[in-house]
Design a protein that fits this description.
With about 500 residues, the chain is an alpha/beta fold. The protein has 17 helices and 16 strands.
């Protein structure tokens, strides 16, 4: 076993896409692994190729626009569209339907390389937990904390010790169609630290491990949360192997979480929707621990000064009486009007009730996003069996009674499933708009390992298995004569314009 504390380099790659917006896009899983390593005797450095740490913006580029809620834009550099996409895009361009440009989102490559080469990023020496345990007050509020209770989790800096190379490089992966950024990160890490052990994990690594391994040639690919491969490689190199399980919260780096923090109360989802990869990524649903969730919240609230929080749950309202509601009651006890909570993933309509809606309103959940997906009963019988239309109407009524205005409520509808007709989506848009709330039209993305994957392969004219770029929901690759891309553009306009017109009448 090495005497010195080993160093782990965690890397968030840049993203190559037609569009990207920071709707609480945080490296939650990667920094959970980082915490696991740090609590097991490692030093940890995080390099974010997607954006500069908050408060540490640098470089000659204009700072991307950010909003007070912690969301915003990324640096964007237009590049040539991959030629493999030309057969899909050229006809649309010729018809004047396609206006988007492919781009690289993130810090410039030279800065990204420099941070990796010189090991500059957010650093944790790994000397114990970043915040010492401190019990909550009997009233459920946060007892007073002194600054010394927060052990050093640094802002942007270089790792102590000149000429070091990391013992381990872990690169997180997001959407399958973002793999070009992963390739870039692997290439740079290999060039700058060729002797370091390098592994990939995350969504792309789990859903397409063979493609991921073939395209990037890492030393290993972590699938789901199976860390046996990583543990074996660490042991083989004489490096510390922390005990499992992983901690439920990430390293609270201020540059990542000061503008907005993320919380996950429950893990996974008990449902089996045909279009969703949640079960493939997390096969077993695990209800959350309200005390653990509270500690994760306190760590960011007190340690980073975070006031915006997004729930990362796929099933936030499941067993809400045991987890979410007690958490919200504690938040209410703080009596802090600056706190704001958001639901980017949407919540299951069937889980709403009056008590929970009232608690969410009082705790500072400022926008409600719900996943209806379609107003067609046949759609739900076929794909998810998670909601009835009457439950949706009841849910909207409950939210309005709790004090939410129509503009505070958004509803996700899916468009572009294999064989789905445009008429069904249009009818769903008009149905939701009749309630006065906002429609958010989400283009379907064919995702490996879902129940709809096989049907998507048969229905799609493009090589989904060989080229993950075609999974991109912006491309609308499941286009067919019953739902052409032109019609999608019309429906998106209907969703946007219809909401504005309805707001004038309500």
């Amino acid at each position: 076993m090495k005497k010195d504390r080993p160093l782990a380099l965690l890397v968030q790659p840049p993203v190559y896409d037609f569009a990207l917006y920071d709707l609480y896009l945080k490296p939650f899983g990667l920094l959970r692994i980082g915490r696991w390593l740090a609590e097991g005797g490692w030093e940890v450095l995080f390099v974010n190729g997607l954006q500069y740490p908050s408060g540490s913006y640098q470089g000659g580029l204009r700072k991307p626009k950010r909003k007070p809620d912690g969301t915003g834009k990324f640096n964007r550099h237009p590049i040539e569209t991959p030629k493999v996409l030309e057969p899909l895009l050229r006809p649309r361009i010729e018809r004047g339907e396609w206006k988007k440009h492919f781009a690289r989102y993130g810090v410039p490559e030279e800065d990204f390389r420099s941070m990796i080469r010189h090991l500059r990023g957010e650093y944790w020496a790994g000397t114990g937990c970043p915040r010492q345990a401190h019990p909550a007050t009997p009233e459920g509020g946060i007892s007073s904390m002194q600054s010394e209770e927060f052990l050093p989790v640094s802002a942007f800096k270089a790792v102590p010790g000149a000429g070091r190379s990391p013992d381990l490089v872990l690169i997180g992966t997001g959407m399958t169609y973002w793999y070009l950024g992963v390739k870039e990160a692997v290439r740079i890490c290999r060039e700058e630290h060729p002797k370091s052990l390098l592994l990939l994990g995350g969504i792309y690594a789990t859903l397409m491990p063979e493609h991921c391994g073939r395209i990037t040639s890492p030393d290993g690919v972590i699938v789901e949360e199976d860390f046996s491969l990583l543990q074996g490689l660490l042991e083989k190199r004489g490096l510390p192997v922390p005990p499992l399980p992983l901690p439920n919260r990430p390293i609270p780096f201020p540059g990542v979480f000061k503008e907005a923090g993320v919380l996950r109360l429950n893990t996974g989802c008990p449902l089996r929707c045909s279009y969703c990869a949640s079960r493939a990524l997390t096969p077993i649903f695990r209800p959350g621990d309200p005390d653990g969730a509270w500690e994760a919240f306190r760590e960011l609230y007190e340690g980073c000064g975070t006031r915006n929080f997004a729930f990362y749950d796929d099933a936030l309202l499941y067993r809400k009486e045991e987890v979410l509601n007690p958490f919200l009651e504690r938040v209410i006890g703080l009596k802090d009007p600056s706190l704001r909570f958001y639901l980017p993933n949407g919540v299951h309509v069937s889980g709403l009730d009056r008590k929970t809606a009232q608690l969410m309103k009082r705790a500072g959940v400022v926008e409600i996003r719900m996943g209806l997906e379609s107003a067609s009963e046949e759609f739900h019988r076929r794909y998810d069996r998670k909601v009835e239309v009457e439950q949706f109407l009841q849910g909207v009524s409950i939210l309005k009674q709790a004090g939410y205005e129509a503009q505070d409520i958004s509803v996700y509808l899916l468009a572009g499933l294999p064989g789905q007709g445009a008429e069904e989506v249009e009818a769903s848009i008009r149905f939701v708009q009749a309630t006065g709330v906002r429609v958010r039209l989400a283009e379907y993305s064919p995702v490996p390992s879902t129940h709809l994957w096989g049907e998507s392969l048969r229905a799609c004219s493009f090589p989904l298995e060989e080229e993950p770029l075609f999974h991109n929901n912006s491309l609308f690759s499941m286009e067919w004569e019953g739902f052409p891309y032109r019609k999608l553009l019309e429906l998106k306009r209907l969703a946007r314009e219809g909401f504005g017109q309805l707001q004038e009448s309500f």
